[in-house]
Amino acid sequence: MKHVARKRFGQHFLADPQVLDAIVDAVDPQPGQALVEIGPGLGALTWPLLQRCRALTVVELDRDLAARLRSHDGLTVIEADALTVDFSALARAKGQPLRLVGNLPYNISTPILFHLLGAAAQVLDQHFMLQKEVARRMAAAPGGKDYGRLSVMLQWRYRIEVLLVVPPEAFDPPPKVESAVVRMRPLPAVAAQPDLLAELVTVAFSQRRKLLRHTLGRWLDARGFSGSFDLQRRAEEVPVAEFVALALDVAAAH
């Protein structure tokens, strides 16, 4: 019986063999690695991955799809919303860093990326299909309109590459937007407080057309920060490393 894509889950199933081959080649899974696929859907990516790595864990929210997947050897199925899964604990249970793969539901891709930040120390790499606009923002350099909170909060923790752009017709049903595959490799952890950095960056980009003295300046004043930081810029002009360094300075001052 054909599975009908469910709009509430943001389901768009990848169906183009060439795109699937390109993703599997980019991931290059090896036997013995702790490979985890988020949102396997109908298994278009699952089966070629499983063929190469022989054992695969999948996280699937849709009860019907999870039931189908359970009947296959080599698959461990976690029937859950990815936003509720403790990926750090999963890595500890497997005794090695995770390799995460997935065609992420576009309606919750950003929350999933932020959720995974907490497990970055337990991850080897991540290969995700996302809306092209989101991928562009993730990898954006300072100075342009695509550079924002998402860019800073992910580039603080990962090296991000956009590997390929995927047209809507590669999916069933086709989404209304272009997609892209990104590779994310965790960087060595900086001793920043993630919550403080997140608050600082959110404030900085809250009114991105204004100079930082109107937004971040007030936030720093409220914390009695007396260090030096150039507030005569807009948030989009500040490199990731400067935001991280400022968060460290603010934390050290308390």
Defining traits:
254 residues, alpha/beta, Rossmann fold, Helicase, Ruva Protein, domain 3, 2 domains, 7-stranded mixed sheet, two-stranded antiparallel ribbon, 10 helices, disordered N terminus
Radius of gyration: 20 Å
Number of helices: 10
- Which stretches of 5+ consecutive residues score pLDDT under 50? 1-10
Largest sheet: 7 strands, mixed
Helix content: 25-40%
Gap between N and C termini: 61 Å
CATH class of the largest domain: Alpha Beta
Give me the CATH superfamily of the largest domain. Answer: Vaccinia Virus protein VP39
* Element-by-element helix/strand order: EHEHEHEHEHEHHEEEHHH
The side-by-side strand order for the widest beta sheet comes to 4-3-2-5-6-9-7
* CATH fold-level name of the largest domain: Rossmann fold
- The pLDDT mean sits at 92
Strand content: 15-25%
Structure summary, number of beta strands: 9
User: Strand pairing plus helix content: what structural class?
Assistant: alpha/beta
